[in-house]
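The protein record passed on below.

***
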Amino acid sequence: AELRKASKRLSCHKRYKIQKKIREHHRKVRKEAKKRGHKKPKKDPGIPSAAPFKEELLREAEQRKQKLEELKQKQKLNRQKEHEKRRKLEAKKNAATIKEKAEGKESSSKSKGKTKKLLNKNSKKSFCRELSKVLEASDVVLEVLDARDPMGCRCPQLEQAVTCSAGNKKLLLVLNKIDLVPKDNVEKWLNYLKKEFPTVAFKSATMMKDKTMEQVTKRHARVDFSETSQYFGSKCLLKLLQGYGKTQDKAIQVGVVGFPNVGKSSIINSLKGKRACNVGLARGVTKSMQTVHLDKQTKMLDSPSIIADPSNSALALALRSIIDPEGSDSADVLEGVNAIINHCSKQQVMMHYNIPDFRDPEEFLSLLAQKRGMLKKGGVPDIENMAKLVLCDWTGARVKYCSQPPASQKPPPYLTEQKIAEMQEGFNLNNLEQENLNTVQALKHPSPASSIAFQSAGMTNGTIEENKVIEEGSEWGSMERSKEEEEEEEEEEEFTEKDRCVSRTLAEPWALLPPGFALLSLTDDFLSPGNGRSRSLSFSLDKPADEDDAYDFNTDYV
């Protein structure tokens, strides 16, 4: 049996005895201090009433005091800034040393190569390079669209690059996440998109069991894979690709491309029937080209996300940007949420989140934060973190919203009738239409009342060429560097000037006095009877530094 801890409870008799001893000790200390005699500092009499220009002297002394206080405050702020800079530099150095220690087992040449690769993998330049590899190697390109906003997921630069490229490349549209959109809306979008490119209705599996790893099951931990592991439209897409492969009499490579969080890797996993590619709620999980063999004749190529061009609207950047909301700036996230709320039906947003009427998106976020208990210190709603959660819900599969296709069919300028016919050549379109109908009928769709009406911003411009990304990045980087360097130089100059000024005032307080004034002692001997001349001031250099930083303000000098 475990030993019990001794109780800290005391009897009343013992507690009162301790309190009595403490009181006696305090009394004894006070008595001894009284015997020794506590010397009180002499009070400074200040400027006598008979002194000339008394008011001016007092005003000037007060002004000097305020100036020194301001200088001290500014110096303190500069010290804090310097401390923050040093702390950040130290944190970076520590992270670098930890990384070096982790990779210390391998040789120096290999570790250097690996670190360079890791650094490059997360850059936009690397994403464009990998995407161009996929486009060059592919015979058929699948552009994955989110069924909630298909037009916003289309990239005109990508479509133009594929349609105008040599080598008879084909482009197919895959309308993914059709289970989050009402049935009528899916049918409208299929009818609209099939007039430009062959379109496949699809519902990918969001969670796939990894067959290569052993499943550790526990009695209390039960995960329902019935809904998340179901997928629809995979047979239709496989038949379409295999039929095209037979017409070409060769093994084909199929590239899967699209903006972040549209379900590119999930589609490959659904076609394969197991978890072949990494998937996640975070944006930009796939960082390089991955090859997955479906059969002898078909090879799938997974690609990183398309990089949204900065010239797009705030709505397009919020939903299609590669940067994850968790790591992005709070101002950009708030701007993105504002754009999303302004493009939605207000009544349906209130119904979905079960909140009262709100005047603006900021009030919407504060009401939602209060409802979910996301509060800062003092009960203030945490709007920044709430905005990040809302943005994650809209880019993920939690919010069911839908957009309407354009009223009139206007193909983009690069898509002529001849190009449309070329893209449709080699595919069994009648069979595709029937299979799409079967897929839509088999799925359970949300009702139009439970789906939020959303106004799309149109096609999203993307950056595919690596050179453009480099130019933009280098210009932006040089601008940032030049600005930072200028700010640092200005701060250093201000800091040195203030230091000189403060040190001068602390060492020579008479430097602040106006010219024409003499240093006289304003003590009891000032203009005393029987003494016609004033005595010169004598500074006490024996005073400890910790008592006062500058000089004693209780005694003023003229």
Notes: The beta strands are 140-146, 170-176, 199-201, 252-257, 290-293, 298-302, 307-308, 401-402, 452-453, 462-463. The mean pLDDT is 76. Residues 124-208+227-309+405-446+457-467 form a domain with the Rossmann fold fold (CATH 3.40.50.300). The first helix runs from residue 12 to 36.
